[in-house]
Structure formats: structure tokens, C-alpha cells
């Protein structure tokens, strides 16, 4: 490990590398997020015809030598008639990827509530949670993608995110507890290698495409209702919007568009416990690799 005095974080919905020019080019994605310590990506493909039947997870990982990485697909389907190089049935996947310069201590992949539809396309969305040591403390980073359908379908997803965050200590680490000899086997407990020391960190950063604008009820659910008596009524175990926290224009910071109108859909929501460490939050307006723009966050020591 190395000591981090400033951690650079970026979130980017890459639309499987397809830019507004219609061209799929992962090199543009890699260039846009190069230099970040933590990279949260959404809409990453594995073996879809639209992205050349390639493994985008492997391609992106290969571009960031030395980084740890975890992939969490919301969509996981068999490819009819598809076979890999070993003659095994192939699967197509679509989901979130998180890369870290520091090792990822553990991860959890959360499938978010979904509503069936006989009308507009309804896609399984998810949140990928990765615990990373940042200086003297651990932070749980989430790569998040909420449904595009409407507020009514996003609100249950935001409630689930808040539940996951607030119940984290209660649920504990993926493998936790006191190690004791297993009376059914000689040689001790065979889970010894899987126990993670320590406790779940209370600190979290939600990164990703929330598919809502700041005037939506799901936004208020995350950061608290707006009050004329001093701004947001944010709960101590809630989140702050990094963009507005550093003075960004609430009506600016556009990262994509809705019906051809500029919109802020991508966010860095930082747990209230970390709000004093937010140094900057900026949109990269020049990146051409997707129909979204990367959003950068810096946390100080």
C-alpha cells in the first residue's frame, strides 16, 4: 500500500464505448479515466454483438495494469449457439465495473428492485460495492446504475441503496466471526483463509448513473429534503451531493441529456461522514466516448 493524501475518483457511464458519433471505441474510454485511483464504470458489455462480441471487462482491465477490478453484471444471459474458445456455452453480460489502484478488500454485488414491463424496456440494474483502503481508513465505493424508466421505479432502488448502507454494520463483512476449530474436521477451521479482519466501514461513496435530475423525489431521498431554513436536511448517516457541496451550480453540471435537453444524471454522493474531505467535483465536458460525460471527484486526506 502507499499513502494517499488525495484520492482521485471518476464515474462514467460508457454506453459500451459507443460515442455520440455511433462508433464503439474503448480506447476513448480508457483515455478519459486514465489517472484515477478509483474508476466506476456503468454499461460495460461482455460478448454482445453491438460491441463486437468482445469481452470489454478484460479489455479495460488489460489497460490498467496493476489495478484491482470487480465486475457486477445486472444482465446475464446465454448466447444462443455461442461457444467460447474452449467449446463451452458463452454468456453475454451487461453491468458495472469498478477498478482500484489499491487492492479491493472485498466486494458485494446488489441486484436492485426491478419492475416488469409490457411497454418500455425494463433492464435489471445493480450496485457493485467494493471496500478499499484509502490512507488510514476504508471506504465502501459503489458503482451504481438505476433504471431509466421513471421515478416510481427508481424510488425502490434508492430505498434499497439506503438500506444497504445503513444496515452494513449489522450485516457485517462477507465472512466474519470468531474462528474456532471445526469439530467435524481435523486440522482446524477451513474458512480461516476467508475471514476478513476488522469491521464494516461506515463511510461510503455512491458513484454512477442515477438516471434522475436534481428535482426528482429520489434525489431528495438520498440527500434529504430542501429547507428554507438552511438547505438540505441531510441525516448524519445519509449522503451529500459532492457537486453542490463544493459550490457547483445546482442547475449545471450536465452529464447527459433527456429528450435532447442537457441534464445532470450522473452523481457522486458522499456519505455525510466524509463531507469535509470533498475537495472538488468536476464534469469532463470533452470526453467523446459515450452519451454521458465522466464525473470526477477528489477526496483529501
Overview of this structure, please?
This protein has 301 residues and is α+β, with helices and mostly antiparallel strands. 16% of the residues lie in helices and 36% in strands. It is built from six helices and 16 strands. It has a six-stranded mixed β-sheet with strand order 3-4-2-1-16-15. Helix 3 packs parallel to helix 5 (217-223). The longest helix has 16 residues, at 151-166. It is globular and about 65 Å long.
Care to give the gist of this entry?
The protein has about 300 residues and is an alpha+beta fold. The protein contains six helices and 16 strands.
Global geometry? globular
Residue fraction in strands: 35-45%
Described by strand count, sense and barrel closure, the largest sheet is: 6 strands, mixed
Order of helices and strands: EHEHEEEEEHHEHEEEHEEEEE
Measure the end-to-end span. 15 Å
Helix tally equals 6
Q: Unreliable stretches, pLDDT < 50, 5 or more residues?
A: none
Rg computed from alpha carbons, rounded to a whole number of angstroms: 20 Å
> How would you classify the helix and strand content by structural class?
alpha+beta
Into which percent range does the helicity of residues fall?
10-25%
Strand order of the largest sheet: 3-4-2-1-16-15
- Per DSSP E runs of 2 or more residues, the count of β-strands stands at 16
Mean pLDDT metric: 93
Amino acid at each position: 500500500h502507499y499513502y494517499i493524501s488525495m484520492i482521485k475518483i471518476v464515474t462514467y457511464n460508457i454506453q459500451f464505448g459507443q460515442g455520440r458519433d455511433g462508433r464503439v471505441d474503448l480506447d476513448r474510454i480508457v483515455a478519459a479515466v486514465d489517472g484515477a485511483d478509483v474508476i466506476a464504470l456503468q454499461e460495460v458489455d461482455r460478448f454482445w454483438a453491438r460491441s463486437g462480441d468482445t469481452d470489454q471487462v478484460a479489455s479495460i482491465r488489460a489497460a490498467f495494469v496493476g489495478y484491482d477490478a470487480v465486475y457486477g453484471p445486472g444482465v446475464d444471459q446465454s448466447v444462443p449457439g455461442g461457444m467460447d474458445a474452449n467449446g463451452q456455452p458463452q454468456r453475454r453480460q451487461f453491468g458495472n465495473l469498478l477498478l482500484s489502484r489499491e487492492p479491493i478488500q472485498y466486494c458485494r454485488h446488489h441486484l436492485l428492485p426491478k419492475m416488469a414491463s409490457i411497454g418500455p424496456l425494463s433492464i435489471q440494474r445493480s450496485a457493485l460495492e467494493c471496500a478499499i483502503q484509502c490512507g488510514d481508513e476504508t471506504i465502501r465505493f459503489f458503482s451504481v446504475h438505476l433504471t431509466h424508466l421513471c421515478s416510481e421505479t427508481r424510488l425502490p432502488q434508492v430505498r434499497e441503496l439506503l438500506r444497504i448502507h445503513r444496515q452494513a454494520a449489522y450485516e457485517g463483512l462477507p465472512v466474519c466471526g470468531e474462528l474456532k476449530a471445526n469439530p467435524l474436521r481435523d486440522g482446524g477451521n477451513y474458512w480461516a483463509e476467508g475471514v476478513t479482519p476488522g469491521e464494516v466501514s461506515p463511510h461510503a461513496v455512491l458513484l454512477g448513473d442515477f438516471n434522475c435530475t436534481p428535482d426528482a423525489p429520489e434525489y431528495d431521498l438520498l440527500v434529504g429534503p430542501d429547507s428554507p431554513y438552511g438547505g438540505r436536511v441531510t441525516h448524519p448517516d445519509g449522503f451529500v451531493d459532492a457537486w453542490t457541496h463544493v459550490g457547483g451550480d445546482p442547475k449545471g453540471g450536465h452529464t447527459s441529456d433527456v429528450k435532447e435537453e442537457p441534464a445532470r444524471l450522473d452523481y457522486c454522493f458522499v456519505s455525510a461522514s466524509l463531507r469535509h474531505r470533498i475537495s472538488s467535483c468536476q464534469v469532463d465536458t470533452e470526453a467523446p466516448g459515450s452519451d454521458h460525460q465522466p464525473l470526477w471527484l477528489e477526496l483529501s486526506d
